[in-house]
Structure formats: C-alpha cells, structure tokens
Amino acid sequence: MTQPITLALSKGRIFDETLPLLAAAGITVTEDPEKSRKLILSTDQPDVRVVLVRATDVPTYVQYGGADLGVAGKDSLIEHGGQGLFRPLDLKIAKCRVSVAVRAGFDYAGAVTQGSRLKVATKYTSIARDFFASKGVHVDMIKLYGSMELAPLTGLADAIVDLVSTGNTLKANKLIEVEQIMDISSHLVVNQAALKLKQGPLKRIIDAFASAIPKV
Ligand code: PRP
Q1: Using 50, 70 and 90 to split pLDDT, how confident is the model at 215?
Q2: Residue ranges of the domains in the chain?
Q3: 1 has pLDDT over 90
Q4: How far does the centroid of ligand 1 lie from the alpha carbon of residue 44, in Å?
C-alpha cells in the first residue's frame, strides 16, 4: 500500500497556480474549492488529498504534520519563521511584492529623513519591523489581519506594509506605493519527519514540481 500524502494549499492564486505543478506529478484535484465549503479535497490519486488552509497557516500545518507538504508564500514563511520545514523549491508562482504604501499627500520621504515615528499597520509585522529597523526608522506597529488599505485612510496609521500584485487595490483606495521591500513567490515546504517516512512518494512529487516550475 502506498502512504497517504496530504498537501496544504490556500484558495486563490496559490491553489490555481499549483494545479499545473500537480498535473506534472500526475495529480488532478477532482473538486472545485470555489464551488463548495469543503476543506479536504480529493484528487484522482486515492492516496493524495489537498487540505485548504489560510495562506498564513500553511507553514504551521506542515511544521506539525497536519500536512506532509504545502505551498506557502515567502511572506508567510518569513512571518512563521520556517522552523521544522524543509524548503526544497522556489516554485516561482503567485509572484508579488511586499511594499510600503501611504495615502496620497503624506510626505513619507520627509517623515523618514526627519526621523519622525511612523505608525505602520500590517499583517506582516516581522518583515515590516526588520525593514524599518534596517533603515533606522522608529515605528509604532499596529497588527491587522486584513483590509490594511483602510488604515491610512481612517488615520489609524501613516503607512501600511502589504502585498502588491497588480497595484489595483492601492489605486482603488488612492494609496501610493512608496517603497518596495521584497519580491515574493511561493515555495514548496515539506515536513521534515514526513520526508524520511514517506520519502518515495514525496520525492516523486518534489521532482515533478521541480520539472514544471515556470521558466519566467
Ligand atoms: C492581497 C493584498 C492586497 C491585494 C493586492 O490581498 O493584501 O489587498 O492582494 O493585490 P493587487 O495589487 O493585485 O490589487 P489578498 O487578495 O491576497 O487577500 P488578503 O486581504 O486576505 O490578504
């Protein structure tokens, strides 16, 4: 009997852009996450299933063995810390960047050069803290879990640190991207114990994913 494999994915771009990689491994997800509320999806391989978790929870599921492997954004991996994870591949999917944005009219450059304290709202507190520390900027960090764009518009914060992909969300909320902190893509992460116990099937998936990584 082959050993069952559980793959953790998050809905949206990571799920959609992982499907071609799964196809390269001969795996098709047979249920559509947009059409049901199911959190465990079956595949055409009886021993492979997909669990749907929040993007920020993928590293945690894989770390503690709730999933054998997963696809996680570099942003989520940095915030998690990466403990207990083997990280064999940058899949070069779900690309975006982490940036600083402010409301139009806010003098960000002036605030930075004058050494003012900045109120920064973000879900990405580790990334933001390291970035502003490296610039020598003092910040009051406000942890949010979503809709970061609202923070500068309501006066909750001077700046946000958030993911930017097309830039449409910032534009729609009249925010200006003033600094790019880092490029983001999604990585394959594997539970270290599972890598030993389920070496054969996991290696086949890792090798197939490696062969199907987008070239650009
Ligand atoms: C991300 C991010 C922005 C948006 C940027 O949110 O937080 O809100 O995408 O994309 P754009 O530049 O193409 O407009 P996401 O949809 O991943 O959901 P989240 O709010 O749960 O993080």
Answers
A1: confident
A2: 5-95+185-212, 96-183
A3: no
A4: 31
